[in-house]
């Protein structure tokens, strides 16, 4: 398993709720989290199948900004 990290604009519980279906479908429930206390709102994804580009595409499709951490 590899750990991918990204800066996002996912900054509240409502944002997390909005992106949950997409990330659960792509990465699997329990394989991702967003540190909303961090100023960069770091999304951490643990995966053995997703590429960074696939994670970026999933988050952007959910309507959020994302960049490599």
TrEMBL record:
An example Gene Ontology molecular-function term: metal ion binding
Coiled-coil features, chain-numbered ranges: none
Organism listed in the record: Hymenobacter properus
One Pfam family this sequence matches: HMA
Domain (HMA) ranges: 1-67
Protein name as annotated: Heavy-metal-associated domain-containing protein
InterPro entries according to UniProt: HMA_dom, HMA_dom_sf
